[in-house]
Write a structure and sequence with these properties.
Elements (H helix, E strand, L loop, with lengths): L5 H17 L13 H11 L6 H8 L1 H25 L4 H10 L19 H16 L5 H18 L9 H19 L6 H20 L13 H22 L5 H11 L1 H17 L12 H23 L2 H7 L4
Helix pairs in contact: 1-2, 1-10, 1-11, 1-12, 2-8, 4-6, 4-12, 6-8, 7-8, 8-10, 9-10, 12-13
């Protein structure tokens, strides 16, 4: 069996920390933090399988839908308990959110406050893979890429005026970053002269995006322009890959921890979603928002990363959860 490359797991671990960081401290919403979701989609695209739609729906979709459904079911007792303790009525909105797979943007007024938090990523990932299977029928790489870019631009135009069931419009925008991962692998941009040729363009785009962008794949916000941010995302991926690759054999504890967190990143997303939704969205008791100093934000960040890590550890020690629920081999 081919040995697993820890580089990509460490990269996902870093992206997971950025996700939690951006949900914890207001000062964390600096431009680079907004590449967190894009990085996950690029890595997914880098390892994309060419499955027909029917095969994905029969075999692959369950690897995302089952963790989503189990996480939602696990939330319900906490929601019921929260209603009882805080004397609020949120269960109807929570159930609507779960059924719709609702993200935080693009909703009519009556759905404005319904949000399942980071679980939008799991919903969007299902759509991205369905869309990818459909676009595989287009063999011309340039034509395929052009249509994917147009789809992402359409998502940007629709973001404020359309219902977003199961984060489908988020997926339209995310598909471009998924395709970037596919292009990186197809043309071996990480290890050949091809990478050196495109490096000036993608690195210049990255610098431009860091200075002027506030990209958010979830909300389809592309302030520097969708194409520029796609190019910038390739630059960010290549730069992070080179940095992690340089130290991937390092035995320090932090590196091992990021490797573990990335290996179980889907579990971390689900655990963090429970934390995010219950404490930040659905109840008036916004625990983390009461913090006001940098020290308190750092403490909150450490605690939230700790929650995600504990969830990952418990799943890693239970073969049923690990293999039958999260499909981690």
């Amino acid at each position: 069996m081919k040995e697993r490359d820890s580089t990509f797991d460490i990269m996902k671990g870093i992206a997971m920390v950025l996700v939690i960081l951006s949900h914890t401290a207001p000062w964390a919403n600096w431009p680079l933090a907004y590449w967190r979701s894009a990085l996950f989609f690029i890595i997914s695209g880098y390892f994309a399988k060419e499955w027909p739609v029917e095969v994905f729906l029969r075999k692959g979709a369950k690897r995302l839908f089952i963790p989503y459904a189990v996480t939602c079911l696990f939330m319900l007792p906490f929601v019921f308990l929260g209603e009882a303790i805080l004397d609020v009525e949120v269960m109807p909105d929570v159930l609507k959110s779960m059924v719709l797979g609702a993200g935080a943007f693009g909703y009519a007024d009556n759905y404005k406050n319904i949000c399942i938090g980071p679980l939008w990523f799991v919903c969007a990932s299902i759509w991205v893979r369905i869309l990818w299977a459909l676009f595989q029928k287009i063999k011309n790489v340039a034509v395929r890429g052009g249509l994917i870019v147009l789809l992402g631009i359409a998502a940007y135009k629709l973001r404020e005026n359309a219902i977003n069931p199961w984060s489908i419009f988020s997926a339209f925008g995310a598909l471009g970053f998924f395709y970037c991962g596919y292009v990186i692998r197809r043309y071996n941009l990480l290890n050949t002269d091809n990478g050196k040729r495109v490096a000036p363009l993608v690195m210049a785009s990255l610098v431009f995006c860091i200075c002027f962008s506030k990209m958010d794949v979830n909300s389809c916000i592309y302030r520097s322009g969708y194409v520029i941010e796609l190019l910038g995302s390739i630059g960010a991926f290549m730069l992070l890959y080179a940095a992690v690759r340089r130290f991937s054999d390092c035995s320090i504890t932090v590196w091992k921890f990021l490797n573990f967190l990335g290996r179980y990143s889907l579990v971390a997303f689900c655990v963090h979603s429970i934390d995010y939704c219950l404490l930040s969205c659905w109840f008036p008791f916004k625990f983390w928002w009461q913090f006001s100093t940098t020290f308190e934000y750092v403490c909150a960040l450490v605690m939230r990363i700790g929650f995600a890590a504990i969830g990952c550890f418990l799943v890693s020690k239970n073969n049923f959860l690990k293999e039958k629920i999260f499909f981690i081999r």
